[in-house]
Amino acid sequence: MIQLPDAVSSRLKRDANGLVCAVIQDATSGRVLMVGYMDDEALARTLKEGRVTFWSRSRQEYWRKGDTSGHFQLLRGIEIDCDGDALLLQVEQIGVACHTGTFSCFDAGGKVEPAFFGVRAQGLAENLAEKTNAAEPEEAGEAS
Asked: What is the pLDDT of residue 82?
């Protein structure tokens, strides 16, 4: 078992199964490619090897992206979110990220059409505009 450095481990908040959400992002374009889950061992392997390793919740085993598909994710950077319950991994994606054959899993899933959230978003925008207009404007250039 590869040990995760304490400086990283102590900053993470894991779920009840010891997992942290890992958002995978293309390092060049910034496009979100997929979401996976990591435990300490998967993260330690990723940091040591430079290739992204996940914990499969369905198969209950480790899997390193690209070992069977040939579509590798080479680690280029990693960040921990403010709460410590999510990771952002910037990768160089070799081939496609999604098992369906699309570059991003979000290409395969598709967009939610604006009609599903448009009315709610419009009401929110109007509410925020009213509150903004009602607020007293600050004087430009004055220190508070």
From this structure: 95
Encode 121-137: b = buried (16+ Cβ within 10 Å), e = exposed.
Answer: eeeeeeeeeeeeeeeee
Cα 111 off chain centre by: 17
**Structural contact between residues 66 and 54, judged by C-beta atoms closer than 8 angstroms:** no
For 1-41, what is each residue's pLDDT tens digit?
788 888 898 999 999 999 999 999 999 999 999 999 999 99
Q: Bridge-partner residues for 55, per DSSP?
A: 62
CA distance linking residue 114 with residue 99, whole number of Å: 27
Per residue in 70-83, pLDDT (tens digit) is 999 999 999 999 99
Contact call for residues 108 and 102 (beta carbons, < 8 A): yes
The SS3 of residue 13 is coil
CA separation, residue 40 to residues 13, 17, 22, 60, 70 (Å): 11, 11, 12, 14, 24
